[in-house]
Each structure stands twice: as structure tokens, then as C-alpha cells.
Amino acid sequence: MTAPALATRRYGLGAGLAGAALNYFKYWMLAAAVLCFAVPLLIAQYAGIELSAWYYAVNAGKWFTAFVGGGFVFTLLPQMIAAGLTRRELAAAMGVFGVLWSLALGAVGLAGLFAERAYYGAFGWSQGIDATSGIAPIGSAADTAAFAAYLPLLFLAYFAAGTVIGVASYRWEHAGWLLLVPVLPVVFGLDVALYSTEPVGPGWIGFLGRFIDEWGRGPLAAAIVLATAVLAVAARRLLIDVPLRSKQA
């Protein structure tokens, strides 16, 4: 392998991981889309439709993204190092993976919201979210685009959070997962505050959103960028210093 190829293989690996993950999970995404379009049609036989099913599928995708980031790095770390990849190369590859995965899922989220908007419009349904002040409609096409514009950033924040927890779980085998206690409230709280939504899950995860939901989307987006950068730096720092454990006989 030539020197230029060695210097850039981390980026090719990151792109390859993103492509492989998207290809592997494409049927999961297709199944989510089918459910999001079929379930409202069934519910409409008994009740009015006011909530966006796709929005909640996107939210599930954020948590799944955290699992992908953490699960991939936890699994790949010993395998890649054994194959000759350095820790720094793997850290860079995971960064590329996270960015490409988040952009792809953000595009899927945007396309799904617009498709659902047309679908709901054809049946006269309301496309809204469960906000803190009640059900809030997503709005016009421009509002829908603005609403979805933050999705790639949010996916990246969840990916970075999952990666930090995955690396920590490998480094500190029995206690690393405890990092989710400080990490999840920050990421989830910022997410909840950005859309002024009602948090779903244990109250402690989303408590932060109650204190910052009046900031406005600009400052909140900046805070998410900062939190994502901090998490990415922490993940890289942990990854390049992590010792490899020998297998037990």
C-alpha cells in the first residue's frame, strides 16, 4: 500500500462503514416508513389524526443512531486494531462514519416529512407534534424544511454520544456505560428544547429541556453544536488512549 493510500484509508474506511451500515439497515428504514403510512390510516377509522407518525419514527432513529455509534466502535475496536489500523485512524474513520450517517438519515427524515405532509394533506389530517403547549402543527412547506434542517445535527449529536459511551464501555468494562447518566440528559434535553416537545421516557433524561426551552432555536442549535464537538473530542481522546484487552482463555 502506498503512502498516500495509507494516509487516506481512514476516510475511505469511514465512508465504507457508513455505506455498509445504511445498506444493512435499509429494510429497517423501509419498514418504519410502511408503518408510518399504514398505522395512521388504521387509526383514522376510529379517531382524528393530528400527530406526525414520521416525526416519532425520526426520534426513534436518533436513539438507534446512538446505538449504532456505540455498538460499532465497541465491536470494531479490537478487530480493526488487530487488522493493522491505528487508534487514530479508527477515530477519524468513526468521525467520517458519523457525519455521513447523520447526513443520510437527515435527508431521509426530510424526505419522509414532506411525503407525509402530502399524504396527510390528501386525507385532510393535521401533521403536528406533541409540544409542551399542546399539539403544534409543523406548518407550511417552508416550516417543514426549517423543522427538518436540524435533523442532521441532532443525529450527529446522538451518534457522538453513543460513541463516547461505546468507547467508555470498552475501556472501563464494568462501569463505562455509566457515562450515559451525564451524557443523555444533555443531548436529550437540548433535543427536547429545540422543538419544545414533551419528553418521552424517564423524567430525569429530559429535565434540562425545561430550563432552556425559551432560548430560541438559534442559541439551542449552537449549544447542540458545542455539545457534539465536546462529545466528539471526548470520544477521540478515549479511543486513541484505550488499552486493548487480551481475550480470556
TrEMBL record:
Transmembrane annotation, as ranges: 27-47, 53-78, 90-115, 147-168, 175-195, 215-235
Assigned keywords, A-Z: Membrane, Transmembrane, Transmembrane helix
Protein name: Uncharacterized protein
